[in-house]
């Protein structure tokens, strides 16, 4: 009978866990809907802004008139030390989300012991420190609901490291949201701004590149590009970080939803097995009780 009592207690515990994981999965699913829309909506804007930056920086006449003191974020130096803005989660129970970021970062930092990190998320900060990485600055409290103000704070920290000469390059490490079941950790250079319009590498006859070039050939900057570039550069960096934060938020929620759904299914399977075990134990107990009654009756004859 003690065994039956233990099984019943185990079933109750598993049932409670199933309720919790199911609720967490539903909450993540509800939040994911909005996060997915924001992440996908941010991509075209970020790409368009990058194209405008690319147009300005590809113009030799504009670059020749730039002041280095007014445009420190465009300075290209020999890369001796890098900084990585690592976007993870504040909360746990998000499946392999943070683990995949850490695996990707380990490849990036292989053989580079002097690089510094800016951690976004309490959980990823803990993972970084447990793996003996140097965390220069950290931010938390907004991993699954970022705003442009938080992106501005992160950008300020990254720009300070770059402008002061503490690092020669700043990179973004985040998880790109592809779908609810597939997310991919990526690294993108943030500073100095990297040109994507490389005419020498563009294939001849590439209609898409031709149309894209034609679209931005006639961009008019008012006031002049040299005056706008310091402001445009800062806004571009914040836009890139904000887009990465939105991608990370959607990826975190998708990973948590998948993880909680899997946990709920596993709990349900375990509950069914425990129910079968409980029924067998209960049946065996009843059979033993009947045998004892019959044997007692026989002994009284």
Spatially, the strands of the biggest sheet line up as 3-2-1-4-5
Q: What is the helix content?
A: 55-70%
- In DSSP terms (H or I, runs of 4 or more residues), the helix count works out at 7
Helix and strand composition category:
alpha/beta
Please tell me the CATH architecture of the domain at 71-198 and 216-272 by its name.
3-Layer(aba) Sandwich
Secondary-structure element sequence?
A: HHEHEHEHEEHH
Strand percentage: 5-15%
Write down the CATH class of the domain at 71-198 and 216-272: Alpha Beta
* CATH homologous superfamily classification of the domain at 71-198 and 216-272: ATP synthase, F1 complex, gamma subunit
Q: What is the number of E strands?
A: 5
CATH topology term of the domain at 71-198 and 216-272: Pyruvate Kinase, Chain: A, domain 1
Measured between the Cα atoms of the first and last residue, the distance is: 29 Å
What sort of overall outline do the alpha carbons produce when their principal axes are compared? Answer: elongated
């Amino acid at each position: 009978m003690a065994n039956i009592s233990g099984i019943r207690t185990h079933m109750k515990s598993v049932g409670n866990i199933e309720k919790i994981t199911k609720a967490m999965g539903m909450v993540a699913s509800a939040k994911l809907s909005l996060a997915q829309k924001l992440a996908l909506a941010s991509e075209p804007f970020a790409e368009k802004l990058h194209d405008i930056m690319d147009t300005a920086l590809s113009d030799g006449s504009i670059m020749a008139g730039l002041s280095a003191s007014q445009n420190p974020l465009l300075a290209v130096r020999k890369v001796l030390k890098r900084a990585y803005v690592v976007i993870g989660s504040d909360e746990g129970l998000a499946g392999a989300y943070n683990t995949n970021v850490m695996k990707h970062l380990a490849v990036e930092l292989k053989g580079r012991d002097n690089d510094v990190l800016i951690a976004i998320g309490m959980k990823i900060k803990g993972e970084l420190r447990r793996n003996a990485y140097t965390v220069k600055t950290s931010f938390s409290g907004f991993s699954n609901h970022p705003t442009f103000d938080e992106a501005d704070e992160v950008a300020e920290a990254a720009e300070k490291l770059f402008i002061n000469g503490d690092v020669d390059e700043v990179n973004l490490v985040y998880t790109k949201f592809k779908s609810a079941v597939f997310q991919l950790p990526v690294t993108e250079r943030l500073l100095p701004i990297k040109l994507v319009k490389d005419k020498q590498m563009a294939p001849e006859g590439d209609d898409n590149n031709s149309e894209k070039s034609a679209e931005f050939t006639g961009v008019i900057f008012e006031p002049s590009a040299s005056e706008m570039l310091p402001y445009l550069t800062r806004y571009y960096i914040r836009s890139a970080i904000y887009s990465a934060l939105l991608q990370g938020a959607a990826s975190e929620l998708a990973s948590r939803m998948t993880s909680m759904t899997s946990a709920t299914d596993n709990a349900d399977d375990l509950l069914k097995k425990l129910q079968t075990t409980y029924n067998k134990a209960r049946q065996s107990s009843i059979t033993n009780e009947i045998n004892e009654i019959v044997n007692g009756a026989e002994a009284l004859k």
